[in-house]
């Protein structure tokens, strides 16, 4: 069910500079934890470590009690869905992009996921609908439309863990609100790690962790952190 634990995690990209200086936190199953902090604090590094892109210097990361360094990277990735800041889509059809990660899904499943993510809204006006090519060889989608495709992909993949890495940061305020409500829908009942710099996007987080220069300097709820300021 996707419980995440970081236990005294230390990490550096190069030996001269430690990026994460022994951080510990957990995201209980189905709960939502947000990590906020200035640029360069190490927030995205946390998500890369969870994907097993790099090995830790010391400490442990577990998913459901299992040390992720002891399982294959493919199985770790299969458990995680990510909506990044700027979704890069494949130069292929919208259907392919939604289906990516669950190639066995039926057309009906793809359509259902697309409807939940409100992708259907902009596809239905396109002559080729789901078969519309996107990217360099096709239609250029707006930032919000690309995020909807990424959300539809995640709904279809239905991973126990969801990472939202500045998923609305590149959007204008109006689009941000629309995408945020779609994200709220996907993160319900799912173990969610949100990386953000705008407090407005993490109002619903069960816990907020403030990271500065690789160290957790504060933790609490949205309300308790605001009251403390
Ligand atoms: P945040 O997401 O909080 O902005 P990051 O986790 O992206 O921070 O980066 C933390 C620090 O690690 C930054 O100083 C960044 O320059 C450095 N860093 C990020 N990726 C690499 C890399 N591949 N090699 C070396 N240093 C990196
Ligand atoms: P696997 O094939 O092992 O299941 P994927 O390559 O499908 O793993 O990756 C799982 C999800 O993570 C996909 O939605 C993919 O878009 C996303 N993903 C993979 N690598 C990155 C990355 N470096 N940055 C952001 N998202 C990524």
From TrEMBL:
Keyword hit for Flavoprotein = no
The stretch of residues making up the signal peptide is: none
| One term of GO molecular function | ATP binding
Keywords noted in UniProt: ATP-binding, Membrane, Nucleotide-binding, Transmembrane, Transmembrane helix, Transport
What portion of the full-length protein is represented by this chain? 353 to 581 of 622
Say which family it is in: Belongs to the ABC transporter superfamily.
Protein name, UniProt field:
ABC transporter ATP-binding protein/permease
Localisation per UniProt entry? Cell membrane
Span of domain ABC transporter: 4-229
Q: Per the record, GO CC terms? A: plasma membrane
* Top-level taxon: Bacteria
